[in-house]
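re: that chain from earlier
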Amino acid sequence: MSKNLVIVESPAKAKTISKYLGKDFEVMASYGHVRDLVPKEGAVDPDNAFAMKYAIIERNEKHVKAIMRALKKADALYLATDPDREGEAISWHLIELLREREALDNKDVHRVVFHEITKQAVQEAVAHPRDLSGDLIGAQQARRALDHLIGFNLSPLLWKKIQPKLSAGRVQSPALRMIVERELEIEAFKAREYWSIEADVSKSEQPFVSRLVQYKGEKVEQFSFENEQAAREVEKTLLAAAGGELTAVSVTKKQRRRNPAAPFTTSTLQQEASRKLGFNTQRTMRVAQKLYEGIELPGEGQVGLISYMRTDSVTLADVAVAEIRDVITERYGAQNVPDAVRTFKNKSKNAQEAHEAVRPTSVARHPDDIRASLDDEQYKLYALIWRRTMACQMVPAVFDTVAIDMMPGAATQNDDGHRMRANGSVLVEPGFMAVYQEGRDDTKDDEGDRLLPETAEGDTIKLLELRPEQHFTEPPPRFTEASLVKTLEEYGIGRPSTYASIIVTLKNREYVEMDGKRFIPTDIGRIVNGFLTEHFTQYVDYDFTAKLEDDLDEVSLGHKEWIPLLDNFWGPFHELCEEKESLTRGEVAKERELGIDPKSGKPVSVRMGRYGPFVQIGTKDDEEKPKFAGLRPGQKMNEIDLETALELFKLPRKLGETPDGLSVSASVGRFGPYVRYGDKYVSIRGDDDPYTIELPRALELIEEKKIADANRIILDFEEDGIQVLNGRYGPYITDKKKNARVPKDREPKSLSIEECKELLAAAPERGRRGKKKAAAKTTATKKKTKKKAKKKSKKKTAKKKTAKKKTAKKKK
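^ sequence. v structure.
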């Protein structure tokens, strides 16, 4: 009987799929990508049609070998990786690697695609396989090549001109630009005063609120009344006209319908999980992956609970819609099922790449029914997806709304053109809102009931109080993860699978920090953004990035070739990188002069250095070396002024002396703040501050340090310069040149000086970390050189043998 080998990315997915296929199928995991570009410059060769050098990912070598062993016993190979560019690339890389190792042996290779891990979907996919998509593979290669070329050309520039370990990216850098530009908007924002006029009124003992919408015949706008004087003048006029009462001049009743939101795409799922559950994008995708790959359910085994979670599509399969409508009827009544099936239009140009929205594989599985099988975060996310999916196929919510316009005074009075308005609404048919309401960013929810008393034109309404209220305009809010993802999507920057990794990179590179759930750019984030926007303007431009993303989508659809696309990008980009090599660190670091130091008369400035932001007195052109001081935690380069900067030069601070006459001071060093006494140091931690610490507290820290040191020393052979100490990993012997472990069968206190000397003599030299790394590199280089030499000699031998064979044939 034939044997078929099926490859998926993860063991969890393999476990779920294996139960849907018979004994003729063995399912194995590749554990993600099996190979990647070699992690060094030159992995992509623009001069050779962008040829790429790939290497196996070391940790996955054992999995590839396991696949090769299984493949020997199989007749056919089925590639069942995820249904997107990334999944297609994983399959392609595996096939290329197996071909290189001559492991395919003319076996049939099939690509199978499914968007949910259910018995029907898996069996249907296996019954109708296809070939690997060259278009999807090309699009993925183009993305990988672009990211590599940008990273390996821009990042070294950042290292040289700003700081080590920085990075720039095709999508990451425009995202950083958005965060920095929003912060600059907030800093430049000037609040503007305005006043509103509200009135507390009542009818039939039922109080409600109204507001002034028209004054002297003109519509009231936000800035109609810009100061208290104007507002008080209005108040005086209205009170005089009202005489304690208002008259209803019009009552308008309407019905308003609100339709449900579309089912989840990746980005809307990330946004809602952030708003409603407090999940960051990375957490959302991690939990969704588990729900997609399968959860163990009692009596069912491993079951995939949601469809594929990386998608731009809002489409639902007909069979899924039919089940949703049945469950709505069963749970909420037939009156909540619309006559026609609801359909939603895809916003993404490339939504064909994944055919369905994120939805439960079966809405018959109510979240509460399977709660015992899910952990807390899995339950919350599954419930969110379930409710959104159900709601999208339900009838709209219906509100009765009423607007009452009132004039001050009795109906018999002259109309001076003043109007107060009260708005009310009542939810009369909840419809989809019985199941789900979409969250919103930075807006107040206005869907609550606001009841007004029954009122007819001409009715008198009692004026209780007129309230002029002062307001100030507010700056735009900082981005949250949800609002950043939404904005990136609106601009067409990035794709669903990239948003989580972009945000993680911005945090890891310390380009941003979080204020609650909101992004604030750090000093280094501002500097990097300033450098890129000034010198690489086109490449962080939103429209350029979106256009490039669209071009890559065109490649995946087969409408464009990927090599010409890279050609068009690489030429101008490479030229610009070479041109910017001549920039100095000073030009990039954005030095800002703060004023003049009153003591020396030298300029004081703030700038970014290789180890962080600092202030400086003097310049490099002065005869005397400039003085430097690092910024304190929480201080920002853009906020620091001359007075604050000069405070930083108060270190080291002399605090006094120890009881035995040693000088005590406080300062900040490379490894943080410290107290110095004589030639010894104590780290300052917690709430203590080198700028404010006083002698009594410093002496406490010194005493604590002495006690800790005393407890650390087990034996001290002063004459020989040898100590036995308690270390992080247990007791050890040291002479400051070598360290030797104390044997496990020996009591450290019982060691003699001779035994210590013997153990130290047998121990290796204690080298610096840098030296060890250099030695390791040298060893590795020697090994590589030897390997290359062996390969060359083998090739030469092989060539000689071939030449001999050819000569022998000719003689014959």
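Confidence is low (pLDDT under 50) at residues 769-812.
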